[in-house]
Design brief:
Penicillin-binding protein 2a (Domain 2); 5-stranded antiparallel β-sheet; binds ligand 59J
C-alpha cells in the first residue's frame, strides 16, 4: 500500500522532502546567524536585561555661616523601595512589614496589590539608617533599601528664608539651596549590579562612576546676628500686632549681608502645614515705597549739586504745599515756619523736601537713586528677587518730582534700601551686595562725593540725637545715624492709599566713629499702640544695632565722661575683633 501510494503520488513525496530540506537549511542558517553573526549584539541585549545601573547619590555640600556654623547639613538616610511583583509571593509577611513601617496593614496591602506588576515603588523615604535596617532585617522578599541623603537645617526658622530647602530628591527648591544648586549638588555616581528576571539583586559588580560630592558654601551670614535679628523682629511683630516684617544687617565695607530675617517664618525641617505667607523672603521679594527714608537720598542729591548746604533754610509754613489740585502735607507740626536742611530731616517735612526737589530737579535725584541701587538689579540672583521700580525722571511732572523726593511713586526692596544707606555710611563708596562670605576687600565705587556722604552722616546722626530726634533709635555707648519713615500702604483695588494701614520703616548705620554696619527694619501694618516708624521700627534698630556692635567687639565711641576716664579700660572680648 505504502509503495503503491508512494508510486501513486510521487510528486507529493518529493515536495515534502524538499520542504523539509529547506527547513533544515533555514534552521541551520539561523543557528549560525545567532551564534556567530549576531552573537555580540544578543549578548549585550541579554546583559541589558540583567545588568543594571543604580545611582550612587552624591553628598550635598554643607552650607555654613561666615564662622563655619552649619546651616544646612546632609545626613545619610535609608529609603525603602519594593519590587511589588516579587512581593506577591510572600503576602504572609506583609502585616509584619506594615507594622515595622508604621503603616496601616490594609492600606499597604491595597497599594501592593493595585501595583502588583510594578518592579519599583517607594515604600518609605528618608528613614534613619537604623530604622531602615530594622525593616530590612525582616527579610521580606522584594523589599530593598537604598542610601540617600537628606538635608537638615540646624538653625530652623531663623535661617529658613535665606537658606531655603531642597525637595525629596535633594534638589534645591528655595533660597540659597536653589540659587547655588549646581555648586552644592555634586554629581551622582553609578554602580553596576546584576539582577535576575524579577529584579532581585544578585551581585554588586562594580562602581562604574564615582559620585562627585557637592562643594561647601560659606554664607556671609553671621548666625549670632541672625538669631539676634530674628528675636528682636519677632518680638516687635508680636508687640505691635503687625502682619509681617523684615530686617537686614549689612557690612558696609564688604557688601556682605550679615543677617536677613523675615516674619512670619517657618521650620524648614517640617514643612507640613506650610502657608505661602511664611515662605516669603520679604527682604528680597517684597517691594514697598521707601517713604521718608528716601529723604536721605534726595538730601544727598541736593548737597551734591553744590546749590545747598546744611545751614540753608526753606519755608515750610503752613505745612502744606499746593501743586495744581494736589496737596503735599507735613504730618507733624514742625518746629517753626522755616527749617534748615537738618531740620527738614528731623521734622520729616514733606513740604521742605519737595521745595528742594523743585530746585535741584528730578533728574538729580533720579541719577543718585539709580547709582545707589534703588529699583535696580542687585545682581544677587536670589530666587524670586524683585527689582522694584524707579520711574524715569523724564516722566516726572511737578507732583511726581515732589512725591518721589520723599519716597512715593518709587518701589524698592529692604535689601536695596540697606544697600543705598551703606553708600552714605561708607563715605560714598558702595560695595556690591553679596550673600557669600568674602575674604578679599571688594571693588567699591564712589557713588556719592566723600564730603557729601560725611555731611549726610552728621545730619542723620542729628536725626537721632537732636532734642526732637528719633531718640528711640539711640544706642547706649555709641553714636548712630538714621532716618525713620511711616508710609501709608497703597490699597489694592483702589489706586490710592489706605486710610489705616501703614508700613513703619527705619534705616540707619553706625558707629559714627567709623561706620561699619547698616540696618533696615520694615514692619508691615502695626495695629496696636501706634504706627510711626520712629515709634515702631526705631527701637528694633536700636536693639539690633546695640547687639551687633557688642558681638562684633566694636569699641564704644560715646561713653559718658566718667566711664571714659575709668581706670578699667574697655577690653574687647576677643582679640581678633570676633571675626577670626
Ligand atoms: C504719612 C504718606 C502717602 C502717599 C501720612 C504717615 C504721603 C503722600 C501720596 C499720613 C502717616 C499719616 C503720594 S509722619 O515718613 O508723611 O516715621 O516717625 O504715607 O505723604 O503724599 O497718617 N513719619 N510720613 N505719608 N503719604 N502720598 C512722618 C512721615 C515720614 C514719622 C512721624 C510722623 C508721612 C514723625 C506719611 C515717623 O517721615
Amino acid at each position: 500500500m505504502m509503495k503503491l501510494e508512494g508510486a501513486l503520488f510521487p510528486w507529493r513525496f518529493r515536495l515534502v522532502l524538499g520542504l523539509l530540506g529547506i527547513m533544515v537549511a533555514a534552521i541551520s542558517w539561523r543557528i549560525i546567524d545567532l551564534q556567530v553573526v549576531d552573537r555580540d549584539f544578543l549578548k549585550g541585549q541579554g546583559d541589558a536585561r540583567s545588568v543594571r545601573h543604580i545611582p550612587i547619590p552624591a553628598h550635598r555640600g554643607l552650607i555654613t555661616d561666615r564662622n563655619g556654623e552649619p546651616l544646612a547639613v546632609s545626613t545619610p538616610v535609608t529609603t525603602l523601595w519594593a519590587n511589588a511583583k516579587e512581593m506577591q509571593q510572600a503576602k504572609e509577611k506583609w502585616p509584619a512589614l506594615a507594622a515595622a513601617l508604621g503603616q496601616d496593614p490594609k492600606a499597604l496591602a491595597e497599594r501592593l496589590e493595585s501595583q502588583a506588576n510594578k518592579e519599583f515603588i517607594y515604600l518609605v523615604r528618608g528613614l534613619t539608617p537604623e530604622q531602615g535596617q530594622s525593616v530590612l532585617d525582616l527579610k521580606v522578599p522584594g523589599v530593598y533599601g537604598i542610601e540617600e541623603f537628606r538635608r537638615f537645617y540646624p538653625a530652623g526658622e531663623v535661617t529658613a528664608h535665606m537658606v531655603g530647602f531642597t525637595d525629596i530628591d535633594d534638589r534645591g527648591r528655595e533660597g540659597v539651596e536653589l540659587a547655588y544648586d549646581e555648586w552644592l549638588a555634586g554629581v551622582a555616581g553609578k554602580r553596576q549590579v546584576i539582577k535576575d528576571r524579577r529584579g532581585r539583586l544578585i551581585k554588586d559588580v562594580q562602581v562604574t562612576k564615582n559620585a562627585k560630592a557637592g562643594k561647601p558654601l560659606a554664607l556671609s551670614i553671621d548666625l549670632r546676628l541672625q538669631y539676634l535679628a530674628n528675636r528682636e523682629l519677632r518680638n516687635a511683630i508680636v508687640e505691635n500686632g503687625a502682619k509681617a516684617g523684615s530686617l537686614v544687617i549689612m557690612d558696609v565695607k564688604t557688601g556682605e549681608i550679615l543677617a536677613m530675617v523675615n516674619q512670619p517664618t517657618y521650620n524648614p525641617n517640617n514643612r507640613r502645614n506650610l502657608q505661602p505667607a511664611m515662605m516669603r523672603n520679604r527682604a528680597m521679594i517684597d517691594v514697598f515705597e521707601p517713604g521718608s527714608t528716601m529723604k536721605a537720598v534726595s538730601m544727598a542729591a541736593a548737597l551734591e549739586t553744590g546749590r545747598w548746604k546744611p545751614s540753608d533754610t526753606v519755608e515750610v509754613y503752613p505745612g502744606t504745599l499746593q501743586i495744581g489740585k494736589y496737596t503735599i502735607r507735613d504730618v507733624s507740626k514742625t518746629e517753626g515756619p522755616v527749617l534748615d536742611l537738618t531740620g527738614i530731616l528731623i521734622n520729616s517735612s514733606n513740604v521742605g523736601m519737595s521745595k528742594i526737589a523743585f530746585d535741584i530737579g528730578g533728574e538729580t535725584i533720579y541719577r543718585l537713586a539709580q547709582k545707589i541701587g534703588l529699583g535696580q538689579d542687585t545682581g544677587l540672583g536670589f530666587p524670586g528677587e524683585r527689582v522694584g521700580n524707579l520711574p524715569n525722571y523724564r516722566d516726572w511732572r511737578k507732583a511726581e518730582t515732589a512725591t518721589l523726593s520723599y519716597g512715593y511713586g518709587v518701589s524698592v526692596t529692604a535689601i536695596q534700601l540697606v544697600h543705598a544707606f551703606s553708600a552714605l555710611a561708607n563715605n560714598g563708596r558702595i560695595a556690591p551686595l553679596t550673600l557669600i562670605k568674602t575674604d578679599k576687600a571688594p571693588q567699591t565705587t564712589q557713588v556719592i562725593p566723600e564730603n557729601v556722604a560725611k555731611t549726610m552722616q552728621g545730619m542723620l546722626q542729628q536725626v537721632i540725637e537732636a532734642p526732637r530726634g528719633v531718640f528711640r533709635a539711640q544706642v547706649p555707648a555709641y553714636h548712630v545715624a538714621g532716618k525713620s519713615g511711616t508710609a501709608r500702604k497703597t490699597s489694592v483695588g483702589t489706586k490710592g492709599y489706605a486710610e489705616n494701614s501703614y508700613r513703619s520703616l527705619f534705616a540707619g548705620f553706625g558707629p559714627m566713629s567709623d561706620p561699619r554696619y547698616a540696618i533696615v527694619v520694615v514692619i508691615d501694618e502695626p495695629s496696636k499702640a501706634g504706627y510711626f516708624g520712629g515709634l515702631v521700627s526705631a527701637p528694633v534698630f536700636s536693639k539690633v544695632m546695640s547687639g551687633t556692635l557688642r558681638l562684633m567687639n566694636i569699641t564704644p565711641d560715646n561713653l559718658p565722661p566718667t566711664q571714659q576716664a575709668s581706670t578699667a579700660p574697655v577690653v574687647p572680648l576677643k582679640a581678633d575683633g570676633g571675626r577670626g
